[in-house]
């Protein structure tokens, strides 16, 4: 059972690293597992040029990752060895790898930090807000994948997972999300009220296994807009998909962000997923 847990979670982490690298073009993505002694160990990576950082341990409070664990917040530096917001115990390892800019985000499941998601570049460039948002969004998606894995393992003491042999990996869960969004768009184009309600009901059933009590009520149109945003659509693309104006899409997004207390469209998607409104 323990080996299956590790495999399931490793699959989700690997898919998250690959997805982040593909979405941003960032050359290096890493995941650090938080151990019981509050030390991080870099356990998975993509794009490292040297073995220096592979499987390296990082003490709580040290470097970028250690500061993330201490503050439970994202930390980014544009010039690692000169940054004054972190300690510099790991400068030699960072220099040997040749990393320059790094951003790290906590991965929190059931209020406990499970690990740290990293993105970095070897060239002297600053990681923009778009990249940082993408790292944060990937971390939130990974949190959901890890939470789902844990929930499925708890069913009947693990018997539920054993019957199927395995749980969905991150790529499969992303397919569920895409299907959910497409179903909402299909329902949006259906003129028959009863059929549209049936399709919307199917959408609700897709998120019901991870739904929590929802104190914020989002309208069907607001969920449609969020579904488009979750697929990476721009406002114009969402407007074309939904058959409405781009300004109307903006209006729905403003309403959603106000209801969910989000500052960006990506935060709104993550908040909607946390309350079970999106898969």
UniProtKB/TrEMBL annotation:
What biological process terms from GO does the record include?
A: regulation of DNA-templated transcription
| Origin: domain of life | Bacteria
What GO molecular functions are on record for this protein? DNA binding
Q: Write the record's keywords in alphabetical order, separated by commas.
A: DNA-binding, Transcription, Transcription regulation
Instruction: Cite a single Pfam family from the UniProt record.
Output: GAF
List the SMART domains hit by this protein, alphabetically.
HTH_LUXR (SM00421)
What CDD domains does the entry give?
LuxR_C_like
Which residues belong to any copy of the HTH luxR-type domain? 211-276
Q: What is this protein called?
A: Transcriptional regulator, LuxR family protein
Q: Which organism is it from?
A: Corynebacterium maris DSM 45190
């Amino acid at each position: 059972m323990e080996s299956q847990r590790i495999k399931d979670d490793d699959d989700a982490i690997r898919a998250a690293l690959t997805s982040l690298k593909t979405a941003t073009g960032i050359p290096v993505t890493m995941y650090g597992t938080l151990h019981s002694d509050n030390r991080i160990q870099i356990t998975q990576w993509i794009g490292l040029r040297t073995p220096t950082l592979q499987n390296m341990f990082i003490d709580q409070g040290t470097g970028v990752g250690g500061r993330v664990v201490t503050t439970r917040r994202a930390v980014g530096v544009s010039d690692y060895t000169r940054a004054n917001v972190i300690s510099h115990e790991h400068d030699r390892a960072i220099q040997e790898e040749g990393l320059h800019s790094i951003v790290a985000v906590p991965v929190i499941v059931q209020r406990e930090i499970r690990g740290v998601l990293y993105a970095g570049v070897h060239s002297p460039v600053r990681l923009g807000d778009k990249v940082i948002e993408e790292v944060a969004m990937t971390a939130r998606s990974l949190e959901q994948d890890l939470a789902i894995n844990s929930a499925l393992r708890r069913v009947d003491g693990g018997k539920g997972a054993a019957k199927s042999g395995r749980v969905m990996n991150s790529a499969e869960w992303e397919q569920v999300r895409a299907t959910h969004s497409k179903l909402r768009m299909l329902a949006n184009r259906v003129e028959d009220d009863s059929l549209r309600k049936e399709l919307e009901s199917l959408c609700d059933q897709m998120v019901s296994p991870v739904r929590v009590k929802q104190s914020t009520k989002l309208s069907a149109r607001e969920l449609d807009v969020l579904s488009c945003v979750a697929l990476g659509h721009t406002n114009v693309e969402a407007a074309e998909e939904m058959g409405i104006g781009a300004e109307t899409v903006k209006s729905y997004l403003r309403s959603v962000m106000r209801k969910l207390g989000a500052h960006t469209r990506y935060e709104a998607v993550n908040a909607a997923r946390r309350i079970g409104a999106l898969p």
